[in-house]
Amino acid sequence: MSAATLETLYVVNVGRSLPFVVLLIALIPLTRIIVGTTLGSSAAVVPITIGAIPFFARIVENALDEVNKGRIEAIVSMGGSGWHVVSKVLLPEALPALLAGMTLTLVMLIGFSSMAGVIGGGGLGDLAIRYGYQRFNQPVMIGTVVVLILLVQAVQMVGDRLVRRLAYRR
């Protein structure tokens, strides 16, 4: 492995190892620089994005590693360019795994956006914290939990169905 690849792996691993709530707080100065505020839904976008990138990068890496190396070698030996390898082998072969990874990332983003309620990030997390937890309103807490569960289940079911459809075509 090259030094650049190892450095990238370290950055991805550091990003994945931080608990999201800690990342939310640690990125407050950067969020203020980028967005101009540290509260609200626009401020929540920065840590959510920075938290999701290393996670999805690892998923893409794993999906591409699963592609049969023989197919890549066959394209290269027939004079295929790097673009041919990517467009004709890597993406089509890894597409079901990439779609499964996107589904997993989307479910994780729903969780991240809920945790962003800690910094007033809006959405269901903010509703649960302000009106459920802080005001001891049990029905609001239960309602937000139910909505989050239904949302995650819907996203997961659609993603799983698409992955099965793509995997069946191959």
What are the defining features of this structure?
170 residues, mainly alpha, 0% strand, elongated
Descriptive overview:
This protein has helices at 3-17, 20-26, 28-35, 41-65, 69-77, 82-115, 123-133, 138-169. The protein has 170 residues and is an all-alpha fold. Helix 4 crosses helix 6 (82-115).
- How would you describe the shape? elongated
Number of helices: 8
Q: State which percent range the strand residues make up.
A: under 5%
Order of helices and strands: HHHHHHHH
What do the pLDDT scores average to?
85
Count of DSSP E strands? 0
The percent of residues in helical segments reads: over 70%
**How is the biggest beta sheet arranged?**
none
Task: Provide a short characterization of the protein structure.
Helix content is 83%, strand content 0%.
Secondary structure topology:
Layout: H1 3-17, H2 20-26, H3 28-35, H4 41-65, H5 69-77, H6 82-115, H7 123-133, H8 138-169
